Structure formats: C-alpha cells, structure tokens
Amino acid sequence: MEGLVLSALAFALVLAAAIAHASWNIAAHGVSRAGMPFLWWGAIGSTLLWAGAIPFTGGLGTDDLGAFALGVGVSAFLHVGYMAVLQRGYQVGGLSTVYATARGTGPFLSVIIAVLVLGERPSIVALFGVAAIIVGVVAIGLVDRGRRVDADRPRIDRGLLFGVLTGVAIAVYTIWDAHAVRAWDLSPVAFMVGTTALQVPFYSFAVRGRWRVVWALGRAQWRRILMFGVLSPLSYILVLTAIQIAPVALVAPLREVSVVLVSLFGAFVLRESRAGWRIAASIIVVVGIVLLAV
C-alpha cells in the first residue's frame, strides 16, 4: 500500500460504492422496513445473482480454503450481529437517533482501530477530512431529532446506546473484512457471496413461522428485491476492492457519502423537512471529501 493517502482509483471505487448504496436505499424505500423477511430475500438474491460472477472475478482469490472459510464465516456472523443490533435499536429508539449515532460511531471507531491495530497513519489533512465527513453524516442523521417530543421516553435514550453498539458492529466487521481480504488475498466478489450465503440460515431461523409473509413480500416487491440483490453487494464489493489498495481509515468514512445522497434525495424529491439543514450538512461532508482527495 503506497503511502497513506487515498489514491484516485480507490477514491473512484468508494464514490461508486456510495452511489450504488444510495441507489438501492432509494429503490427499496419503504420495503426494507419489512425487517427480517426483506433481509432473507436480500441474502438469497445477493448470493444467487453474484455467484455466477465468481469464476470471472478471480475465483476465491486463494487456494487456502481454510482461510476463505474462516474469513467469510466470521464476516457472516459479524454482519448478522450488526443487523440484529440495528433492528433492535430501531425497535427501542428513534430512527434518526440510532441511524446518526451508528453512522458517526462506525467510521470513527474504524479509523481508531485501523490506526491502532492495522498500523495505518493518515495525514493530518486526511484526518480533518474524516472528521468533517463524520460530523456532516451525524448532522444529517439528527436533522429531525429536535422535532420529536416523547413524554414517555426514558431519561437515558436507549436509541443512543443501540446506535453506539451498531457503530461498534460496523467498525468490527469493517476491520475484520479488511484484514481478511488483505491478509489472505481473497476475491471481493467471492468473499461477498460467501458472506451472504452463510447469512441465509440465520435469517431463515429468524423468519420461521412467517413464511407466508416472506412469500407475499417476494411476490409483491420482487423488482425492489432484485435491485437490492444487485446493488447492495456491488456497493460492498467496490468497498472491499478499495480497501485492498487504500487505508481503511480513509475508505470507511468516505463510504458514508451514500447517507448524503439519500438525504439530498429526501430533501429535493420527497420534499422532506428542513432541506436547508440537510444541504448545509452535505456541504460539510463535501468539504471532508475534498480534504481526503487532496
């Protein structure tokens, strides 16, 4: 890895990943709230749609089947844990609180762990860029928080707790995945397919007794599920590819540009409230991107 700057290729890969991630979030707007049935379809679709690409994208990337199995096995467990904590957070806390805290905590912790564990040393300018992106993303997530009044809400907001736990999960799976694809030279496509395939049993257990709901969702929303199955893995495949050639400390925050794109879509297309706040926060993120690109 040449230096600790974000190369033009890595920069382009992560921005493309952010666009893909924002696109599936916009396309799946609403249906993703179905929870576990949607996640089951997402894991099935992602696995089936991308498995055929493995022979044309370097195979497994390694002859060490044990290393590949360990990499995808741990990753699948961590990703399922992340989704479980996130779903629980949405049940007990406000959406904006959980989302903002997770999206701010995840990249922040990823940077800290990358420096302490992976030995990365981003430049001062890059760190200012990272800080700007995190601040902007959190501001976007908190845009509606001040408008909520809930007399029954406990003094300690459980949404903050689960938001932090979700952020920890994001940081842990990000660092593990970076270690796996780098240390064992794993193919990002095969790694992604293996991870989603191993998530299917977990989600199958979670939807047990609700198969009618699962099939009904598949029939009604197959177009959106198909788009998710293409774009969600594509987004993370691009991120994993970028991680192979650039520091995690810079890639992890930059991928949160997807949050900005979705927020701007909400402001200009869906006419959501406080567009000025959303735009101002997005500008802060753009400043951070510019600093990373310097």
Number of helices: 12
- Oligomeric state: single chain
SS-based class: mainly alpha
Helix content: over 70%
Overall mean pLDDT: 84
The biggest beta sheet reads:
none
**How large, in whole angstroms, is the Cα Rg?**
19 Å
Give the percentage of residues in beta strands.
under 5%
The number of domains is 1
The end-to-end distance, rounded to whole angstroms, is: 18 Å
Give a topology summary.
Blueprint: H1 8-27, H2 36-51, H3 65-92, H4 95-116, H5 124-141, H6 158-183, H7 188-206, H8 211-220, H9 222-245, H10 248-254, H11 257-268, H12 275-293
Helix pairs in contact: 1-9, 1-11, 2-7, 2-8, 2-9, 3-6, 3-7, 4-5, 4-6, 4-10, 5-10, 5-11, 5-12, 7-9, 11-12
Task: Give an account of the 3D structure.
The protein is mostly helical. The chain has one domain. The chain has twelve helices and no strands. About 2% of the residues have low confidence.
Concise structural overview:
With 294 residues, the chain is mainly α. The protein has helices at residues 8-27, 36-51, 65-92, 95-116, 124-141, 158-183, 188-206, 211-220, 222-245, 248-254, 257-268, 275-293.
Output the keywords.
294 residues, 75% helix, 12 helices, mainly alpha, 0% strand, globular
